[in-house]
Amino acid sequence: MTDSENAPDILPGLSASATRINTKKLEGVPWDHSGEHPGSPLFWSIISRALNIAWSYILRNIEADPPPEVEGGVVSTSTHINGLVDPLALINTQERRIITIGRHDLMTMPVIGWITRRMGSQPVIRKAELSRGVGDSDFAKRINQRSLLTMSHCVASGHAAIVMPEGKSHQDSKLHALRTGPLRFTLNAACIAHQKGLPAPVIQPVGLHFRCHHWFRTDVYVEFSDPIRIPLLPDEDHRKRLINGEWVEPPAEEVIPLRDRLYDELSILTPDAPDWETYRAWHLLGHLRANSSGTPLRTLKEEVLAARFVRERLRPSVGDSELVVDAREAAEILYSNDLDARALDQSGRIKAKPRWMIGVLGVLVMLLASPITIPSTGLQAFVAWYAGDRTDEGLDARTTHHMLGAGLSPLIFWPAICLAAIFLIEGVTPMSPVYLAISMVAIHISNLVFLRGYDMWTDFATASRSAKLASSDQGRRVEELVRSINPGLGALK
């Protein structure tokens, strides 16, 4: 039995929104079986800029590998533990226009649905809904096949698609079982591209690594592995029927091996740990190993690769070694204090120096930017924080609300606020569009300055927690564990 067949296959819980199927709006979602993108080019240019702003607001340090160059269409896939921030990461790390496929209510709910429909996103009614009696199976089959055929034609024509093949967002440190839908439409996309004489599309596995995915202003590293070539189905009649606008299911003997290969490729790019406690232990061991060699880890990318190195060295072991047991305990003490292995210096002691100056400077910077930032973006930020902490979608949806607050600000709130201010001060003048553009840029710059001050304050708070831990019994226990771990690091060479 393959690892893919052993993967967790748990149907997700349904939010209130997912239990409501709006058949009228789903019927009206734009689709296209000619290869043209079903979304609005003008709206894409606008929304992509708004998403770039959201990307810069909700994340702090962003690292991304350059995506491999390919001639044909690309189906980007990743694990899915961070709500709508996961597809945002895939959108913002490539230059192509994107088409997405996702849960039906993302195309019908207020505001978000209006945006996704104009982006050309395609809906699916999942097994999670149908197995619980939500929706009509015949209607779901028709909508799903329409969406899958749209995705196939779009990808065949050279567009980029984003797919979360687990079919849900979850909180586990291991990849869940992959749904076959993405593999079925990619196989058909390869058939359509062949019939049209276009370059063959590929599947692009992507690793999304967040320092702590549900934190505001966390760090992210986006990793690309080698693309997976999609095999061409030999049945010419199958290919012709697809060209003629008919959805035809590819044979299971082609779908399953491709699914299993994608699972194996994606697993490498995930924590692939028994639990988060073990993964944090691997990060700690990676830091200690780097510190012992005199080359401390400086970036999240370096940490991810160091933890992966530890994972592969420990993989042949049966059960947890004393090294891992001690590392788990030390890492959990740090985590329970909102710290990680960066709190340790090269000698293995907890850093105990508070950073008062950086805290004071951070407050001053936030105060400097607040006259513009608070009136223009404060309400959205408060609502995003409040809704994110109280959502029924789970912890993974917390940063989705942060992203929506940041992304909707330049689309709706800033123009309304700026136009109202311009009208009150100047009235309606030919210069109003110029004033509007200048005002929007000023708000964005002010927000970036405010967030820089927030980051300084966060650094101060982190240093204060570290200093407090260093003087506690828990801190002394961490240092004792580190001393016991260090002699065993040679086993990881």
What's the SSE blueprint?
Layout: H1 3-6, H2 23-27, H3 41-58, E1 59-64, E2 74-77, H4 85-91, E3 98-103, H5 112-119, E4 122-124, H6 127-130, H7 137-156, E5 160-163, H8 181-196, E6 202-210, E7 218-224, E8 228-229, H9 236-243, H10 252-268, H11 276-292, H12 300-314, H13 322-336, H14 356-388, H15 398-426, H16 432-470, H17 473-485
Helix pairs in contact: 3-15, 7-8, 8-9, 11-12, 11-13, 13-17, 14-15, 14-16, 15-16
What CATH architecture of the largest domain do you see? 3-Layer(aba) Sandwich
Contiguous runs where pLDDT drops below 50 for at least 5 residues: none
Succession of helices and strands: HHHEEHEHEHHEHEEEHHHHHHHHH
> The CATH topology of the largest domain, please?
Glycerol-3-phosphate (1)-acyltransferase
Q: Care to count the β-strands?
A: 8
What keywords describe this structure?
alpha/beta, 3 domains, 8-stranded mixed β-sheet, 17 helices
